[in-house]
Write a structure and sequence with these properties.
alpha+beta; globular; Transferase(Phosphotransferase), domain 1
Amino acid sequence: MADGSGNSEEQIRSVDEQIRSVHEQIRRVEEKIERVEEKIEGLEEQINRCPSDEERKLLRGKEAQLRDREAQLRGEKAQLRDREAQLGGEKAQLLQGRDLGTEYEWLVQKVVPPTRSSRAGVYPSSSSHARMWLPVKVEHWDVMNEIEEFLESADRRRRVYRIAVSKKEPHSNLHFKSEFIILSKSKGGNDGIGSSEGASSSAMVDVYSGSPRADFVITLREKNALVFEVKNEGLGSDGDDPWFLHRVWTDCSCTSGEGRCGFAVFGITPSHGESIIRCISQLYEYMVLCKVGYGVLTDARNWYLFKRDNAGCLKISAGIKASAEPPRVLAELSYLVHAAAEDNSEFGDPTGNGQFPLVHEGAPSEHSDESSDDDINDRTYTARVSQNISSSEKRRSERRHSGGAQLALEDVSAEDLNLKKAGGVISSEGWSGCVVNGRLHGQPVALKFAHLGTERAEALLKEVAAYRKMEKLWGIFVPRLIGYGTTNNGRVVFIATELIDGVELGEVAVTREVETAAIQALAAVHACGLLHGDVSLSNIMVVWGKNPTVRILDFGFSCITSNKKLQKAERVRLKRFFSHIVE
């Protein structure tokens, strides 16, 4: 490095600290604006109910004062945004003039992953939602020789580098530093979608009713090029030996009731293997939805390159360890960006759709005769429990049955749903898409949206039918159903449930009390003549200070049945989750 590089690094750190300080100030101002808006909403409700003209006049005076305060806070926020932009410009100038060495030197830097969790047996985070797209065939991608050739051809002249990465959060830049730090993925909270203060409520609804998003999407020449999916842990062993991840998919030869499992080749449990399979299917579906041919699956310690074609074939590289010597992670990622840039193929929907590998669940036979008043989609669900179907056609037919009478859907204006214009996203993961904050009938709610006529809209209507059947459990084991209908002139279906103040089951230390409450909750759901259909840690919330301490969420895959064997299989699945996380 040149002699002045140390001062440059110190200046950049100083500007970074100032930017972080400004971000914190903006956050505090936004919280103040939110509180003022809530007070204004409360005053408007009082004004509408107030019978006295004199009292209304006083209330309108208070409202005017709050409006002035809101305008003042927004002015402060605008000034902070200007300061943020100014600091961003200063940092860009410093980065532009900094000597970062040669391309080769950058590619062979060591990656520093985040501190590992102290909890044992952590599986990679994965949604158990059904997927619209699954690979027809999964193969090994022998790409290591190509990466080495790419590394050897790297330019060794000194130069300056800049790269921009499109991510969920707006204005995100990935800056290459002397030590490349991979940040932990944050869950929940605002992901920047619909956060523009000028966005209309109807425009926000259209955004929130869209498809789920990947963690990172790298764009080249204004076109999606590759997708990143970042997991917490569990995509590799503790040692230095890499995994050939495609074998998790291809070697899983379990048959329901026989208990054979190819996951033994990695020394992991079927639960762990199933989580990895779901991670693979999640990234593959995102690659299809984003119309790209390349992707990356990582938990920061283990890195896997993905490549697909339009025939439904998915290729996965052997894992690359962040701790490997010599370091190869940055060379691997740079090679993939290069490959995506050089590939002029058009990646559309695959011509074929595959099936989810069979995973032994101890589930009953598909031809169980222990059924009394099962709904017609019980047999479809039996196949789902044993993971024996996964084509989009069968999933579509499953969703045509709402499990009840036709629902009357009243249209509600998007403005009446009171969507938060900043910080409103509760969750943006999984098949259901966004879950966002709003207000309906004067109370805070969690809202889900889907365009009318889609599979996800059918899932929301199925969820409404399930909640109506479980009315006696509202506020006890499941959230209260506050409302449902259409919005945006009947183009979008929505469901509004009670806003739960808690955390997902997989994000906290779990006690026996929580385990007992969760099992009781699921049993109560079964007693209502329902199967949840998607039991997972992410669909159970821990609510501290309440009794019982859990709420079961997301009934988009539920079905009406009193089949005892199917209910038992679902409880066994839940208990298996707890066997790995209870402290």
